[in-house]
Amino acid sequence: MAKRERLTVPMVRDRGSLREATWDEALSRAATGFNRALEQHGPQAFGMFSCSKATNEMNYIAQKFIRTVVGSNNIDSCNRT
Fold it and tell me: Taking the CB of residue 66, how many other CB atoms lie within 10 A of it?
């Protein structure tokens, strides 16, 4: 198996092919996709999984984001295992 190179720039799909993009374009496309899914399916279509190896601060901001920005209570983590 050949060694894979790590991506150093965002990639976006145009007409079935990936191409390099700016961070602004990639984040804008991601935000557009999130907004479209929210409009079509509502906030309960979203969920988030948080990791027990993340800091308490990171886990806090993850749950805060999914609850306040997205409007979903669908959040879980492996902290309880």
Answer: 20
How far CA 8 is from CA of 4, 21, 23, in Å, comes to 12, 11, 11
Q: Does residue 52 contact residue 78 with C-beta atoms inside 8 Å?
A: yes
Q: pTM above 0.90?
A: no
Rounded Cα distance, 26 and 34, in Å: 12
Ramachandran angles phi, psi of 22, nearest 5°: -80, 160
Chain Cα centroid distance, residue 34: 9
pLDDT means per 10 residues, the chain with 81 residues, are 79 95 97 93 92 88 93 84 58
